[in-house]
Amino acid sequence: MVRCTLPLSGIRFGAALVTTAAAAAVLSAPAARADPTTLVPLLIKGHNADDSGTELAPNRFRIGRDGTLTVKLRWETDNGDAVSSRCHEVSKILDPLGNVVFERQQDLGGGCTGGGNWRARLSGLGTYKYILDVSDRDSSHSLHAELPFDIVLF
């Protein structure tokens, strides 16, 4: 039987080598995102014909001659990252009293970096709210966003 003993300095050197290797592994590992992906709800006024309302400023619309506003609801992620490979979207609009006046949902695939494309026709004045929930269909991960917007007479 052969017995090897390392001098104390050799043990320190070995421990230092292991510590250095562990530190290098930590430093070379990809850094986690400090800010996670968030949803960006968008309201799009396709044209400014007076009969379906007019966009006055971001998230501020004048009601049309027929007493309605037609907008398109879309969403995207703030950084282009996918919510998941397969997701479920629920889009709602609440009126100034908190009643649901528009609701659509759909399953999406192909990366889930955006969706919506719903056309909503609204009537009445006040501050409305676009509510958006997108969930990963394969896990319990979900994202939520809200966008208030105004429909005014003048």
Give a verbal description of the structure.
- By secondary structure, the chain is mainly beta.
- It has a single domain, classed as Immunoglobulin-like (Sandwich), CATH 2.60.40.
- It is 14% helix and 48% strand.
- The chain is built from one helix and nine strands; from the N terminus they run αβββββββββ.
- A six-stranded mixed beta sheet has the order 2-3-9-8-5-6, with no helix packed on it. A three-stranded antiparallel beta sheet has the order 1-4-7, with no helix packed on it.
- A hairpin with a 5-residue loop joins strand 8 and strand 9.
- The longest helix has 21 residues.
Summarize this structure briefly:
This protein is 14% helix and 48% strand. By secondary structure, the chain is mostly beta strands.
Largest sheet: 6 strands, mixed
What oligomerization state is this entry in? single chain
Q: How many DSSP-defined strands?
A: 9
Strand proportion, as a percent range, falls in: over 45%
Query: What is the H-and-E element order?
Result: HEEEEEEEEE
CATH architecture: Sandwich
* Count of domains: 1
Low-confidence stretches: 1-6, 10-34
- Report how far apart the termini are: 97 Å
Strand order of the largest sheet: 2-3-9-8-5-6
